Amino acid sequence: MKKLIFGLGLLMLLNPLQAADGEAALYKVEGGTKVDSQTMKGFRTWRAAACDRCHGANQEGMVGPSLIASLKVLSKDDFVKTVRDGRLEKGMLSFNTNPMVMENMNQLYAYLKGRSDGAITQARVEEIK
């Protein structure tokens, strides 16, 4: 019985997809590298916007901060505000005129949150078939 309870607890910790309040999951990941179609749009948006130039190819930071660390504490609203409006005083550009980023903001957040949560184990992902 203890093994069952431990296993269920571990499963809950390792699977942050399940929303506690019954909401739809933010992302779906299989094997750490395969993601649902919406999260894949987030990855494609990340690549197209060239966010890696400042945040690093693995989102661990370069000139800009580590997004893996930042998304552990940054709310979704703060993430959206930062991406949309930028932080010019810190060198973060505004993406409010970039249609791809603005149209895929939720998907971009899901991809980066999955990376931050540890559910997505590498930067490059592929879509679940």
UniProtKB/TrEMBL annotation:
Keyword Heme recorded: yes
Range of residues in the leader sequence: 1-19
Keywords assigned by UniProt, alphabetized: Heme, Iron, Metal-binding, Signal
Record Gene3D superfamilies: Cytochrome c-like domain (1.10.760.10)
Record flagged with keyword Iron: yes
Molecular function as annotated in GO: electron transfer activity; heme binding; metal ion binding
Ranges where the Cytochrome c domain occurs: 37-116
This protein's name: Cytochrome c553
